[in-house]
Amino acid sequence: MNIKSTISLIIAAAAAPAVVAGPLGYAICQTGCNALVVSCYAGAGFTFGVALPVAPAVIVACNAGLGTCMAACAVVAFSPTL
């Protein structure tokens, strides 16, 4: 890429309006989080969504990871993107 192309690309990127990812970005992010927690449960030998009388520590850890992931999705949903 030559210098004129690089400068043109930088100017175009700087002029692009910022948009918010919105509900679709949030939904895609949550789907990824849910896929991760399902695999976390499966790796521990459990099924996600099945109620247990007592949650083993590994399930508590999976749930904590899900909460962290979902919180990150909320940030993604309202962060500006180009």
TrEMBL record:
<keyword id="KW-0732">Signal</keyword>
<feature type="signal peptide">
    <location>
        <begin position="1"/>
        <end position="21"/>
    </location>
</feature>
<protein>
    <recommendedName>
        <fullName>Cysteine-rich protein</fullName>
    </recommendedName>
</protein>
